[in-house]
Specification:
Elements (H helix, E strand, L loop, with lengths): L11 H6 L5 H10 L3 H10 L25 E6 L8 H13 L4 E4 L7 H10 L3 E4 L1 H9 L8 H13 L4 E4 L5 H8 L10 H13 L4 H4 L1 H11 L2 E4 L14 H19 L4 E5 L5 H14 L5 E4 L11 H14 L4 E3 L12 H22 L6 H11 L3 H7 L3 H10 L18 H9 L8
Parallel strand pairs: 1-2, 1-8, 2-3, 3-4, 4-5, 5-6, 6-7, 7-8
Helix pairs in contact: 2-3, 4-15, 6-7, 7-11, 13-14, 14-15, 16-17, 17-18
């Protein structure tokens, strides 16, 4: 029987800094078509994170960093109005099948622990959570009755449950309360976690527990090899608030907190905006990279307009493609239900596809080796009017096939589509080059 090697390192970053190549690094290197030593060096620097809780035994590891392929995250979870965990599990498996690298369980109702444990026992994607959401639910007490250490203990519980990364809203402090009260923002705070911390600080008069006890949280993360995702409590919720002093002030604190985490060999991701006009996205990415020392940037969208409820998977995909092209490493998907309702299975599917398009387009623009290979294969299949071959390279072959089969041309089904029929440019050129008669009528 093969003897298992005993783990001799605390975290992926600890291993990387000591020159140890972990099994997770080897898997990531193969996926990225990069030398494993390159991956190790990037993890050691903090420019790549491999979220991999040592208790998540079924994990298929992925690396997150601007030098790697752009990854996407899918937010799921039950709420008081939508309580069916079976539906959420269906969304999880659909997301994995569609290529999502991470799932965040944002459940805010009922006993959340069994579902969270089920995810880390059965789902190969990286699992993330936002512990502050779970605090009130876990203790079944009003927000203002919770102590600072109650919040810290929920972080420990999530780590023990096997989650790979936790969003911690550390950057919002008492100073932020004064800025918001000054009324300079149109939308104030739109971060659910940020608003809960803001409310708790306002009611208790105490400092943000995630900021005050940050070192204790880092010790927990180091023990279980949990990656810290520094939450953006002050992310802009509308274009008018983009790149304002509140957002940038929080980012400065997140830069300091990034360095403190790295001192304990804890991996870090930094979360970002939000709603941002297209012309400000590149600058936002550059500012984050500078202030946070190249730590992977995890963005929600960004949404490039405020007026598209029902279509915000499109506004987010536009912003996400620009963000990833300019350095964002991790895109949080947005669905058509954003701002409106909990997404259903179809909303989730549409959000994932939109985010995958944005990520892939950005990887091509970044010039990642092999990123355009599948596009070139699709071009070859289209030139040959080989429909079966085209389905192999579709991001969503199910939808593509359904559209074609619903509206086939009256004849020559193997050739053109019903939009052009025998006027098809590809068909005409193929026949002309082959010296054949081009029959139109």
């Amino acid at each position: 029987m093969e003897k298992k090697m005993e783990r001799t390192y605390a975290t992926q970053m600890d291993a990387a800094r000591r020159g140890i190549v972990t099994p997770e690094m080897e898997i990531v290197a193969k996926k990225e078509n990069l030398p494993v030593e390159k991956i190790r060096a990037l993890v050691a620097e903090g420019k790549v994170a491999i979220p991999a809780n040592k208790l998540h035994k079924c994990l298929d590891p992925n690396g997150i960093g601007s030098a790697l392929k752009t990854k996407i995250n899918v937010n799921l979870g039950v709420s008081r109005d939508c309580k069916d965990y079976d539906i959420e599990m269906k969304k999880v498996m659909n997301a994995v099948d569609l290529g999502a690298e991470a799932i965040m369980d944002l459940s805010s109702h009922g006993n959340t622990e069994p579902f969270r444990v089920k995810l880390t026992q059965e789902c190969p994607a990286m699992i993330g959570t936002v512990p502050v959401y779970d605090a009130v639910i876990h203790y079944q007490r009003d927000l203002n009755t919770l102590s600072a250490h109650d919040f810290v203990d929920v972080v420990r519980l999530h780590a023990q449950n096997g989650v790979d990364f936790v969003t911690i809203h550390c950057g919002i402090t008492k100073k932020t309360i004064e800025e918001i009260k000054a009324g300079k923002r149109k939308m104030n705070l739109v971060s659910r976690g940020g608003s809960l911390i803001f409310a708790w600080m306002s009611m208790t008069g105490e400092e943000n527990p995630f900021y005050e006890y940050y070192d204790e949280i880092l010790d927990i993360c180091r023990e279980y090899d949990v990656t810290v995702s520094l939450g953006d409590a002050c992310r802009p919720g509308c274009l008018a608030d983009a790149t304002d002093s509140c957002q940038i002030g929080e980012l400065l604190r997140l830069g300091e907190l990034t360095e403190r985490a790295w001192e304990k060999d804890v991996q870090v991701m930094v979360e970002g905006p939000g709603h941002v006009p297209m012309d400000q996205i590149a600058a936002n990415m550059k500012i984050q990279q500078t202030i946070c020392h190249g730590a992977p940037f995890y963005v929600l969208g960004p949404l490039v307009t405020d007026i598209a409820p029902g279509y915000d998977h499109i506004t987010a995909a536009i912003g996400g493609a620009i963000a990833a092209m300019n350095g964002a490493a991790f895109l949080c998907y947005v669905t058509p239900a954003e701002h409106l309702a909990l997404p259903n299975v179809e909303d989730t599917r549409n959000g994932i596809i939109a985010s995958k398009i944005a990520a892939h387009a950005a990887d091509i623009a970044k010039g990642l080796p092999g990123a355009r290979e599948i596009d070139d294969k699709m071009a070859d299949a289209r030139r040959a009017l080989d429909w079966e071959e085209q389905w192999k390279y579709c991001l969503d072959p199910q939808t593509a096939k359904a559209i074609r089969e619903d509206r086939l041309p009256e004849d020559d089904h193997s050739e053109a589509c019903s939009m052009c029929g025998k006027f098809c440019a590809v068909r005409s050129i193929n026949k002309a080059l082959a010296g054949e008669m081009i029959d139109i009528l």
